[in-house]
Amino acid sequence: MIDVARLAGVSHQSVSRVVNGSGGVSPEIRERVERAVAQLRYRRHPAARALATNRTFSIGVVSFGLAQYGPSEALAGIAREAQEAGYSTSLTSLLDVDVESMAEAVGHLIDDSVDGIIVLAPVDAALTAMEGVDVDVPLVLFYPGAHAHEQRVVTDEVRGAELATAHLLDLGHPTVHHISGPEGWLGTSARIAGWRLALQARGIEPPATVEGDWTAAGGAGCAEQLSVVPDVSAVFAANDQMALGAMKAFNAAGLSVPDDISVVGFDDIPGSEYFRPPLTTVRFDFAEVGRRAAHHIFELIAGARPDPARPVVPDLIVRDSARHRPLAVI
Amino acid sequence: MIDVARLAGVSHQSVSRVVNGSGGVSPEIRERVERAVAQLRYRRHPAARALATNRTFSIGVVSFGLAQYGPSEALAGIAREAQEAGYSTSLTSLLDVDVESMAEAVGHLIDDSVDGIIVLAPVDAALTAMEGVDVDVPLVLFYPGAHAHEQRVVTDEVRGAELATAHLLDLGHPTVHHISGPEGWLGTSARIAGWRLALQARGIEPPATVEGDWTAAGGAGCAEQLSVVPDVSAVFAANDQMALGAMKAFNAAGLSVPDDISVVGFDDIPGSEYFRPPLTTVRFDFAEVGRRAAHHIFELIAGARPDPARPVVPDLIVRDSARHRPLAVI
DNA sequence: CAGAGAGGTACCACGATATTG
DNA sequence: ACAATATCGTGGTACCTCTCT
User: Could you name the CATH architecture of A56-156+285-313?
Assistant: First the structure.
């Protein structure tokens, strides 16, 4: 910068003003500085800037399960929004979701003195860990539940699960069984809650859930358990992978989907339209969720009112894996 | 840091030595400093450090197609490896893969003065863009081809495609048709090359390819085209999504997979084992690729010999979507 | 007189503030 | 009042010097 100042024949401070557009610079000097900047290919030094301003213009993301569809989409959304706002995105990957590694990951980011933190790890541990860790940095959590909160970006998965379950009930099924996600995930409880709500709204007592692990193999295992339960005609799986595995297992057990048994998934992962049968499922715009989270963080950084954003809403995508309840065998 | 020095009754320089473990500090002073550090919860300031050392201890990643299975896995690997090495990972998401946005993304990262850049965008444009952009920062490209190079981490997708094609030929199919990825992707050419190689090794003239777009819908479209071509009995799809779509389309056309037609995919995405039929495919350990890329960058940063790493090798995962060629109809 | 441990000083590249023209 | 400059502070590290065995 001093080189630029020298070449333009001004003080480095004037250069700073021009570069940051802070005004109070005569057109003539601005012109001279800009020429010098171009000539020297000057780029400002973020570290020095950070040192002087105590702002890094970077946000940190704590992620877990990046290989999952939702989180990776959301991450792309975050990165995009951050880029447009002139922020850089610093990524931390969680090895485990216990409180300790959460705290460590957040600590890492704080050490990097990020201006804000987005926690993209929708697990219970994240919530409790964040209560323990006392952070003086703006922080936003992805929250797949229903409760708005100034530190959360909410995807209303409760509503999504309700939609899926209600759809099956509307098709005439007397009840709906649920293949849930693994314990410890916020999405698991949210989807269970929505499923319960939909059943109870019609006075139906929710049957026991079967716990999967988000994978197709897990879903298949759950379906095997369900296929020996009498009167199972409709199943809501907590994600598409498990729905895929479940459909396969039902078929292997001699139960045709959707003729004998209806299945609805959750996520609308790429390809779910091409499953056999095409999967009826619930779609969220996860990239939008990411963008909102980033936007929210920027407002918090700017000290703005933390406006708890309306939740991102789901869409039910009706395809062929769920049909009217089979007629009773005569 | 000066506070720590004051509390410990030493010079700030000694504190620096202790914090960085540069040695030359007496045990007694080290002890005093460490106590002071703990008491004051001192954490060093990365911006100041960066300013003084001209190193940021962060690497930049230029990504494209994060929603795809391979890249997102690789990204997780990178983040992990970086974390262990004490680096932070700065993520830039590409809007488009033309030369211009590549250059812009890299420019962003350079503005952030990262110590190294990993380009996780396996497209032709990345290659050409990188030739144009003159970067004085260590840079590593993901390269899904076969040519080792000091700036590349190679996944030998040519070999993977050969494996897939040879498997089909070994099953007795007279030739193998290929549903390729879209033009402009390095993986597309690599997989075409491998497929050609395997055919030519047996003196078979490669038939025309059908170009897809990585999606299941695209794969289905390609399969529709192929199903009217006579004598198509084996198809190698450039990724699992397209294979999924293709299998569906073949079935819709009255062609059973694998009885009438064999299909092999590429990637081994989660769930491919639960497709109907379970998909025979080619697996790469993309997380490992990510880890290697990060490791490679660190060596380059350290000024080490750029040892062109051996490529990551594929595994053929044999499942049920490919069988012996159907007997000729009598 | 080495050599090791400790301290002192300059500097990194910028922004904020006060001061000068 | 306004534009431009000088000076200082930011939190570290690099390098040189000094002291004391």
Answer: 3-Layer(aba) Sandwich (3.40)
CA A285 to CA B97: how far, in whole Å?
A: 23
Assess B80–A contact: CB distance below 8 Å, yes or no.
yes
| Cβ-based contacts of A46 with chain B (< 8 Å) | 47, 111-113
Length of chain B measured in residues: 330
Task: Report the pLDDT value the prediction gives residue B330, as an integer from 0 to 100.
Answer: 47
Of A48, A93, A245, which is closest to B51 when you measure between CB atoms?
A: A48
Collapsed DSSP state (helix, strand, coil) of residue B63: strand
**Average pLDDT of the segment spanning A183-203:** 96
Residue type (1 letter), A154? V
Answer yes or no: is B55 CB < 7 A from strand C. Answer: no
What does the radius of gyration of chain B's CA atoms come to, in whole angstroms?
26
More confident residue, A17 or A68: A17
> Same topology for domains A2-44 and A56-156+285-313, yes or no?
no
> Mean pLDDT over all residues of chain B?
91
The CATH class of the B157-284 domain is: alpha beta
Return the CATH architecture of domain B57-156+285-312: 3-Layer(aba) Sandwich (3.40)
B161 near B190, Cβ under 8 Å? Answer: yes
Which pLDDT score is estimated for A96? 83
| Cα distance between residue A173 and residue A55, in whole Å | 57
Q: Which two tokens stand for residue B169?
A: 């030929």
The yes/no answer on whether domain A157-283 falls in CATH 3.40.50.80 is: no
* pLDDT of the residue at A127: 86
Does B329 score more than 60 pLDDT? no
Residue B61 tokens, joined:
């990643």
Q: In terms of DSSP H, where are the helices of chain B? A: 2-8, 12-20, 27-40, 46-53, 69-84, 99-111, 124-132, 157-170, 186-200, 216-227, 240-252, 286-301
Among B56, B95, B276, select the one facing A47 at the smallest CB separation. B56
Of chain B, the percentage scoring pLDDT greater than 70 comes to 97
Count the neighbouring beta carbons within 10 Å of the beta carbon of residue A127. Answer: 18
Q: A83-123: per-residue pLDDT in tens?
A: 999 999 999 988 887 888 888 888 889 889 999 999 999 88
B2-44 belongs to CATH 1.10.150.20: no
Percentages helix, strand, coil for chain B, rounded to the nearest 5? Answer: 45, 15, 40
Domain boundaries, chain A: 2-44, 56-156+285-313, 157-283
Residue B17 backbone dihedrals phi, psi, to 5 degrees: -60, -45
CA distance A50 to A113: 9
